[in-house]
Amino acid sequence: MGELFNFYAFGQIGIIVLAIAAFIIWDKRYRKNHGAAIPPGFEKTDEVTLDPTDGRKLRVYYNSSTGERFYHEE
C-alpha cells in the first residue's frame, strides 16, 4: 500500500512539473513572435488577425529563409 501511495504522489509531482515547464516554454515562444520592432529579413504579408486574448489587430510578417512568422500590432 505504501508503494502505491509513493507512486501516486510522484505522479502528481511529475504532472505539476510538466505543466509548469510547458507553460514556460509556450510563454517564451509567444513572446518571441510578438513585438514592436520587426526583425530584419521579415516581409509584410496580407494576413491580419485579431488576438483572441485582448482583441489587438496583428499583422503577420514572414521570413522566407527560415519559415518563421512574426506578429506586429497595427
Radius of gyration: 20 Å
Instruction: Please describe the biggest sheet, giving its number of strands, its sense, and whether it closes into a barrel.
Output: 4 strands, mixed
What order do the strands of the largest sheet run in, or round the barrel if closed? Answer: 1-4-3-2
Order of helices and strands: HEEEE
Number of domains: 2
Label the structural class: alpha+beta
Mean pLDDT: 78
The stretches of 5 or more residues where confidence is low (pLDDT under 50) are: none
Shape estimate: elongated
Q: Per DSSP, what share of the residues sits in E-state strands of 2 or more residues?
A: 25-35%
Instruction: Tell me the distance between the termini.
Output: 60 Å
Question: Given the structure, what is the number of helices?
Answer: 1
Helical content (DSSP H or I, runs of 4+): 40-55%
**Strand tally:** 4
